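Run log // design_07
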């Protein structure tokens, strides 16, 4: 198998895991909400435009969703001190807790797929997950 095919399999499997977890949890919360909260958790406060890019969601949709998340106490919204036309969104403690609960639910939903793995397979997944986490952290930082 080529490296290109390996990367394709990683991306496809990651998407499949996400879809399986979403279905198994029964969550009706839009995926964009979790992408936004995850971006804020990893990157810190972001302008609405940057948040839209990270969430892969149109800016008007993000603006509306930010309003809902503010109402729920999951994020705060404030003017950008560097640009009065821009709005900065930040994660609250309640938002971080909601994100942690969602991630716990996702793990519980897909964990049964992995219960029969041998120790060497777990070690392979552990190493692969670390490599993926390292590479995607660099990619997000470069994207800014």
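design_07 sequence
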């Amino acid at each position: 198998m080529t490296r290109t095919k390996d990367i394709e399999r990683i991306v496809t499997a990651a998407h499949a895991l996400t879809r399986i977890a979403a279905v198994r949890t029964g969550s009706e919360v839009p995926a964009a909400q979790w992408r936004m909260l995850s971006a804020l958790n990893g990157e810190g406060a972001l302008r609405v435009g940057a948040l839209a890019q990270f969430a892969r969601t149109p800016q008007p949709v993000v603006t509306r969703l930010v309003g809902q998340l503010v109402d729920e106490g999951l994020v705060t919204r404030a003017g950008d001190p560097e640009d009065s036309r821009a709005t900065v969104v930040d994660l609250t403690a309640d938002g971080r807790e909601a994100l942690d609960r969602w991630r716990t639910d996702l793990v519980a939903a897909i964990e049964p797929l992995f219960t029969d793995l041998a120790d060497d397979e777990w070690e392979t997944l552990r190493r692969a997950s670390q490599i993926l986490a390292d590479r995607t952290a660099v990619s997000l930082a470069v994207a800014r």
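The chain has a mean pLDDT of 89.
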